[in-house]
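Section 4.2 – Deliverable D4.2 (structural model, holo form)

The reporting period included a commitment to supply a predicted holo structure for the target in complex with zinc ion. Inputs used:
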Amino acid sequence: MTAKLSAPRKKAGTPRDDKKLDRVVAQALQARNKRMQGYREQALKVLPWICGRCTREFSLENLHELTVHHKDHDHDHNPADGSNWELLCRYCHDNEHSREIDAVAGDTAVTVGTTDNATYKPFANLKDLLATNNKK
Ligand SMILES: [Zn+2]
Ligand SMILES: [Zn+2]
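Output (structure tokens):
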């Protein structure tokens, strides 16, 4: 009975098919995560670290309080020139969304809830990147 499991045909064939599929799925998820994290880094590269509303200036020390707002509220719409991004401090970002709560209830719920908090995580990585760049 158990001999069937280790049949030579299976070994010679493509036993990695399942794993390959897993890897493809994992890569797709990673790519998506990278893309979602990437827009924050990208936005901080192309835009000045200033809140677009209260014009407060930010540095590496308090950069985590600066959030990326999507002007059209589409988090998957991330043109490289930054035309859909606006850097806002947390307070102004909250304000921005509560003002639009009637108009775009869906985006508001998502953004104020967990999405923007999640974007804080790539910041640690960004700090390292910037530190490395500065050393060069
Ligand atoms: Zn502000
Ligand atoms: Zn926003």
